[in-house]
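To whoever is on call:

I kicked off a structure prediction for a single chain this morning and the downstream step that reads the tokens threw a length-mismatch warning. I double-checked the sequence; it's 83 residues and nothing unusual in it as far as I can see. Pasting both halves so you can look.
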Amino acid sequence: MRRLRHEPMLLKPAKWIGTATGVAGAVLIALNIGAVAAGFALFLVSSVLWSAVGWVHREPSLVVLQGAFTLINLLGIYRWAAL
């Protein structure tokens, strides 16, 4: 597998923000405090950022996984925001 010699400057923050928003989204949903739509919104941010990371690193499996999560998160936002 070929690795990037120099990681683009915004990639490291994207990874950490993607991780933090994913964890925060999971916590909001797990707490069951009525913030499910906000949890899915945080998951959406995470999925988009991790899709970008996968794209830059040429990791098709990560891009496909996060693309699927993006669609699921959009469905979750639609379902929970419409209630």
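Update from on-call: the warning came from a stale cache, not from the record. Cleared it. Sanity check on the structure: The two ends are 46 Å apart (CA to CA).
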